[in-house]
Amino acid sequence: MWNANRTRPVSLGSEGKEDTVMVMDWGMQNRLEQLMPAGRCFFMPIDHGYFQGPTHGIEKPGQTVAPLLPYFDALFCTRGTLRAAIDPCKTKPIVLRVSGCTSVLGKDLGDEVLTTSVEEVIRVNAAAVGISVFIGTEYEKQTLQNLTTMVNSCEDYGIPVMAVTAVGRELEKRDARYLGLCCRIAAELGARVVKTYWCENFEKVVNGCPVPVIMAGGPKCETEKEVFEFVHDGMQRGAVGINLGRNVWQSPHPVPVAKALQAIIHKNVSVKQACEIFEATKHGK
Asked: Which of 3, 32, 176, 192 is disulfide-compatible with 201, CB 3.0–4.6 A?
């Protein structure tokens, strides 16, 4: 499991000499610590509108986010939503989406380009950026080049890049072999963090990726318990956190869900305890 010490000098070998595993400058380390306190994280994505327009639950994103602020560590959004709807005086660290220009009405969601410059990332004081890659599709090279272009720019300023292993409409691709391949390629090309989907044998995905792995929420689950179960399982198998939106803000009880998820991520509670937190919060206890 990732922690801050993975980026610092460690003692190796029988002679006890120090060898640097990874060199990370102060700004990069500081931003990652903001995003992942104690090496774990709960990111709240509200970027869905960039390809599907008005989305149930985030029609008014500022109002959606406000009551959830105490429970998540960072907000994942586009620059348009950030400027128009998020209070700059009352927010958390920002992960700025920097790829897009496709929609659900188009031919292929994978046909993305970069939408934001590193200057804009700095201007809005984002702590990190997020960019989708569509590996195994017609747009594999294009989206991987988007990733490397942004990595090359952001590394100069100590800004971490999160690669999002998107699968578009092809949900059947969510198995450990495919997702493990996607995560490793993204890490090899310089992503500091990778967001991917939970799957069976999730530890195979994590073990093959040398950078922190965060779980995406995917389609909305039928019950809150289902959400807690896959999140808890993924954390036990090596994920450092979640980037989960629809299963929170499309719930009839978003705050109780968020509070329970925060407890799984940061307090290592069980699924049973998470359900108890959910029920107690829902009933105002």
From this structure: 176
